[in-house]
Design brief:
1 helix, mainly beta, five-stranded antiparallel beta sheet, 2% helix, six-stranded antiparallel beta sheet
Length: 356
Amino acid sequence: MSWFANYIQNLSWFARPATPKTQPKLDAHLRRRKVTTNEHDAKAILPEPRSVKSKFLSLIACLLIGLPTGVFGQTYTWSTLAGLALSAGSSDGAGSGARFNAPSGIAVDNGGVVYVADQGNNTIRKLTSNGTSSNWATVTIAGFPGISSENDGAGTNAWFRVPAGIAAAGSADLFVVDAPPSSYGMLRRITLAGGVWQTVTVKVDNSIVGSLGINTAPSGVAVNNAGDVFAVLSLANQILMATLQGQKWASWEIAGDGSGYRSGTADGTNLVARFNAPSAVGTDANGNVYVADTGNHTIRKMTPQGTNWITTTIAGQAGNFGNTDGTNTTAQFNGPSGLAVDQSGNIFVSDSSSTV
């Protein structure tokens, strides 16, 4: 998988939860930060800020990133692949002929195919390149526009309530967190079989613990190289892991204590660690998990040690927001809400803005 695929895979900035009431006012910019790792150091690099108008710009932009100076360069070229700004809709089509409605999560599989959780339409869309940046074909592969419900099935016979984060596990294998308000969040899996996209709810011990808990506001999802799935439960301040064991899925909380929706800043082992409205998650090739801890303005690293997970803060200062570049906690973030990791272990983070 290319670095681009890893970067896009979990960039769910559009899907982040509402800003906590206690959080300070944020910058009116979307800032894209790159955290590079050098042994135990993490350095944040801040390219030029870009103006962001609204979550509800109904287009899929920032999908193709040209890097004339290399991955680590500061010059980026952004192209709109599909949709038309300020024109909401649900139409499939090529380039600007396609329409979206509050797109949220986005993922790229190892074949370069792009998938979008089209939250306002309750659908999952597939974007395929036809050779140029202005001629991507958009088709709806799951969900039906205007129907907000839960139903497994083929193609548009499968229904979603509020599809948020999306992740690709290889080719034509997707995981989506479906996050209806005031109800059970669910983990859904979409696979291509016999030319038909099939959506099923991931169940644990024959119960819907694809239901990611009630009122937990799942927002981000990631898949590691072993096929384990990690979901961020933003309101519960928890990270959940789901693993396929034989023919059944098992899931458990691996960090944060969601029993009382407790927030906090503590590093530690397993449920001793605390988060504050985390919104995005990514994984690296070594099995480490990284979390954009939005309410704490920090980046957290979760390292597996046997059956335990050790959470540490690798960048940012809890409770101290800003946009300063630097090493480890000298770097500052302002409500980081999108995160992805490339094959080299570099972490890409998008900061929030007060307009989102």
